[in-house]
Structure formats: structure tokens, C-alpha cells
């Protein structure tokens, strides 16, 4: 379930590790410049409406190569401009590009989650941050892998946090659901998780047989208010929040996700290691075990059977917000 991304973000991933010289670039001959443009358009799938300009040669730290700056721009859109540095051999017959990866940060700290509802041990050394869409069937599959089975297996060794990434283009009620869930979270984490548990097991019920969006939104609001009452939340604050449908916080999360290059749900980070799509239990646990070992923590032994068991921290599938079936 992919989100459309601008070419700008595609090109940013191709930035190269070369140093720019202080001297003025030496212009390329027209044939070499044309070769570079054609190759760049072909290899990078540059849309025809984008213009490409080729800079001159500059010295580089790579023996036998010079640096050449290639700039991609969309006429009339100054914010859609990106420059990449390529390596051009001294004889002009080879063009190369290298990827530069920033390893200055701790991977576990690259995906922010402060202030989000949390399940598990707040002091755990391994954190699972999941970008979730409450209408996404693949997200529902991953949710079933996480709760209660994975959380129970690792007990106090992990913590799980959800970030919002509603894919509005294909999931019309996902944004509304995320707002309602966050209205609950603003007062207490527990009703937030109960609400999320329910939506991930009753997506078809929310959509309804007639796929009426207004009915879906009304049902989402009703469920949120009922869950708030069961959890003894402030009813006035909750009702006002649900009615306001303030998208500000969710929009900020979407923008942050795009900045991290996230384009589909679910996207799960385990101490910074990224996985996309629904994962089977074996794969998920292998990744978590690897993160635990890197933190000096011994993973729990894998049980002979992995039949999910009910947990107080994660209501059984099918439990309705408000505590009824």
C-alpha cells in the first residue's frame, strides 16, 4: 500500500559521498554532457517534464575521477530542484555514483515516539515503532502478530509504540479513526489501545456493506465515546475532541513519516531496523532477538507452540470498546 512520492524524495536517496573542490568547474564538452543526461534519465527514470543540467568537472578525493554535479529541476516549481554529485572518470568513459549513509546516530533513536501511547515495559531497551493505518488490512495482520503473542513472549523486554500514517487515498475513514484514537490517548493510554484493538479486528464492520463514509465516521465516534465512558474519561473533553476532528497532529505525523522515507503501512522499526508489510511471527521474533542481543540482553527461548493467549494488556480479538462483545 504505497503512497505517491515526489521525484525530489526519490533523488535525495541517491546523494553521493564526494568532496567539492574550491576551484571553478572545468566545462564538459557537449557530447559528454549529453551522454550523462541520457544515462541519468534512463537509470533514474526521470520524468520527461524535468530538465537536467550538467555541471563541469571538479576535483574529487576518488583517484582517477572528477566530480560532476547533475541538477534536476521542474520548470515553474523552484521547490522541485535537486542536485546530485556523480563521479566521472578522467578519460570520460565511466560515470559512477556512491551512496552516502549517515551512521552518526543510534538507529534506535532515529524514529521518534515521545508522547505516544505505549505497551510493554517503558524502560525496555528494545522499542518497536509501528507506522499504522487503522483501516489497513495488512496493519491488522501485523497487529495480530504483536498483540498479545509477541508482547507476552517478550514480557518486560520490549515496548511497542504506534505512529499514525493514514493512507487517505485508499482508506477513507483511516484519518477520522486516528483522530478519535488520539482523543482517547490524550487522557489515557489504555482506552486508546482498546479502541485500536477493536478497529483492527472489525475493519469490515466499520466500513459497512454499503460503504457509506458518513456512517463509518459516526460509528467510529460512537465507539470512541463508549470507550471513553468505560474508561471514566472526562466526557466533555472527549466529546469536544471527537467533534472538532483536529487534523493538526496527524498531519504532522504524516509529514514526519514522509521525511523518513516511509511510503506504506505497516512499516515497523525495531530499534531502528525497518521492515515493511505484515510479518510472520518467526521473522518478527528473529528481528527482535537480534536487537536484544545487540543491547546485551538474552532473548527468551522460543516456545514449542506459539498459540496466542489472552493477556490483560491486550484484549482478546473481538472485544468491543466499552467492555462488551
From TrEMBL:
Region (Disordered): 295-325
Domain annotation Thioredoxin: ranges: 73-225
InterPro entries in alphabetical order: Thioredoxin-like_fold, Thioredoxin-like_sf, Thioredoxin_domain
Pfam family, one: Thioredoxin_4
Bias kind Low complexity: ranges: 304-319
Superkingdom of source: Bacteria
This protein's UniProt keywords: Disulfide bond, Oxidoreductase, Redox-active center, Signal
GO molecular function term, any single one: oxidoreductase activity
Keyword check for Transcription regulation: no
Signal peptide region: 1-21
UniProt similarity note: Belongs to the thioredoxin family. DsbA subfamily.
Name listed for the protein in its UniProt record: Thioredoxin domain-containing protein
Source species of the chain: Silvibacterium dinghuense
Amino acid at each position: 500500500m504505497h503512497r505517491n512520492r515526489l521525484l525530489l524524495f526519490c533523488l535525495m536517496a541517491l546523494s553521493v559521498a564526494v568532496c567539492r573542490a574550491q576551484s571553478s568547474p572545468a566545462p564538459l564538452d557537449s557530447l559528454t554532457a549529453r551522454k550523462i543526461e541520457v544515462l541519468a534519465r534512463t537509470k533514474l527514470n526521470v520524468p520527461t517534464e524535468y530538465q537536467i543540467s550538467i555541471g563541469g568537472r571538479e576535483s574529487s578525493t576518488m583517484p582517477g575521477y572528477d566530480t560532476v554535479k547533475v541538477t534536476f529541476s521542474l520548470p515553474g516549481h523552484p521547490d522541485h530542484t535537486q542536485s546530485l554529485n556523480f563521479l566521472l572518470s578522467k578519460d570520460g568513459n565511466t560515470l559512477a555514483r556512491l551512496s552516502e549513509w549517515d551512521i552518526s546516530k543510534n538507529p534506535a533513536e532515529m524514529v521518534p515516539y515521545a508522547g505516544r501511547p505505549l505497551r510493554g515495559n517503558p524502560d525496555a531497551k528494545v522499542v518497536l515503532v509501528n507506522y499504522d493505518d487503522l483501516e489497513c488490512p495488512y496493519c491488522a495482520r501485523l497487529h495480530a502478530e504483536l498483540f498479545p503473542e509477541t508482547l507476552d513472549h517478550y514480557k518486560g523486554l520490549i515496548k511497542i509504540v504506534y505512529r499514525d500514517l493514514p493512507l487517505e487515498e485508499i482508506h477513507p475513514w483511516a484519518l477520522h479513526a486516528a483522530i478519535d484514537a488520539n482523543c482517547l490517548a490524550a487522557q489515557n493510554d489504555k482506552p486508546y489501545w482498546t479502541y485500536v484493538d477493536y478497529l483492527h479486528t472489525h475493519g469490515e464492520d466499520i466500513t459497512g456493506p454499503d460503504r457509506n463514509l458518513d456512517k463509518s465516521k459516526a460509528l467510529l465516534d460512537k465507539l470512541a465515546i463508549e470507550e471513553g465512558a468505560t474508561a471514566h474519561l472526562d466526557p466533555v473533553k472527549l466529546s469536544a475532541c471527537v467533534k472538532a476532528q483536529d487534523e493538526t497532529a496527524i498531519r504532522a505525523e504524516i509529514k514526519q513519516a514522509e521525511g523518513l522515507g516511509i511510503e506504506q503501512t505497516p512499516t515497523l522499526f525495531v530499534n531502528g531496523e525497518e521492515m515493511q508489510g505484515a510479518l510472520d511471527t518467526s521473522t518478527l521474533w528473529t528481528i527482535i532477538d537480534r536487537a536484544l542481543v545487540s543491547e546485551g540482553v538474552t532473548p527468551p527461548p522460543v516456545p514449542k507452540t506459539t498459540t496466542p493467549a489472552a493477556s490483560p494488556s491486550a484484549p482478546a480479538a473481538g472485544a468491543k470498546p466499552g467492555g462488551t462483545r
